[in-house]
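Q: I have 146 residues here and want to know how they pack in 3D. Can you give me a structure?
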Amino acid sequence: MSKPGKLSVSDFPIAPRRPKPATSKAAMKPASVSEEAGARTAAREPAAAPVSEADATRERPRRGLPNPSNEERKSKSIERALAQEEGRYRLRDLKRAHTREAKHYVNCPLDYDTKMRLQKAAFDNDIKMTVVIKAAIDQFLRDNGY
């Protein structure tokens, strides 16, 4: 070890790398001792790399995504922004229409039995309780000439 408190790479034992097993026909046959030694040294040598990056790209075709031009990117981003803006406007208008309809509400207390009957009628007909109440009030007003 070097100085106390400071570590270096030489302080740690490092195991040698294992050679990769060859899967060729020669490796399948029993080989002599000299052939095994030659195979081990060949396995330790790195494989030959391509001469340059340009040669490497020529060897295998590029299968990346298409690269649109700046004009195409700009036009698509403008279209997307306009669509989002239109969606925001439609959502805002829908919310305004909903609040306009819901703005004029009537609060009335109901006794327990009436409320239970109203809940059962709404559940059986698969509609909201407010729809039932609105229809009942509308019917009452029509019957009485209002």
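Q: Anything worth noting?
A: DSSP finds six helices and no strands in the chain. Residues 28 and 134 are 87 Å apart (CA to CA).
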